[in-house]
């Protein structure tokens, strides 16, 4: 014979909650938010050297568009910051001309600031991890399906 004990459902539902684990079970690294970006576009402004408290940086602007030259969608301008030590790769990046087609991978960086009227604003930039040159600024050699036309001004 079975002996059934009636346990009210309400007492099971109001039981003390279990402790939530602090680390993710599927990763050995600490949990943190990372927003990655992958862009293909053309250099809108030639890369320039700059310096920060961390070290030297190369800054440039990449323009991306959806739908090519005749699209009604406005082009997007992305400010790219590359933390690069002195060397061939930095010199190569600095030598690229406006209009060079590039592939860039990086992390999104959101900066908040106050404009001259005192309003809070935010700006999205990309901290470059890797890049690859996909083509020269020679516009006549663009293939079908790629971005065509001139780099629009900001």
TrEMBL record:
Keywords: DNA-binding. The keyword DNA-binding applies. InterPro entries: NA-bd_OB-fold, Primosome_PriB/ssb. Transmembrane segments: none annotated. It comes from the Eukaryota. This is SsDNA binding protein. It comes from Aspergillus lucknowensis.
């Amino acid at each position: 014979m079975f002996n059934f004990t009636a346990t009210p459902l309400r007492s099971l539902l109001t039981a003390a909650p279990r402790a939530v684990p602090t680390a993710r079970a599927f990763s050995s690294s600490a949990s943190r938010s990372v927003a990655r970006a992958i862009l293909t576009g053309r250099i809108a402004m030639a890369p320039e050297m700059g310096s920060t408290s961390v070290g030297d940086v190369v800054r440039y602007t990449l323009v991306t568009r959806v739908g090519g030259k005749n699209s009604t969608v406005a082009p997007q301008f992305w400010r790219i910051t590359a933390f690069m030590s002195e060397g061939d790769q930095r010199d190569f990046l600095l030598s690229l001309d406006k209009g060079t087609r590039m592939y860039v991978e990086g992390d999104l960086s959101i900066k908040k600031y106050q404009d001259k009227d005192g309003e809070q604003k935010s700006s999205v930039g990309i901290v470059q991890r890797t890049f690859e040159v996909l083509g020269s600024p020679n516009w006549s050699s663009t293939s079908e399906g790629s971005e065509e036309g001139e780099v629009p001004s900001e």
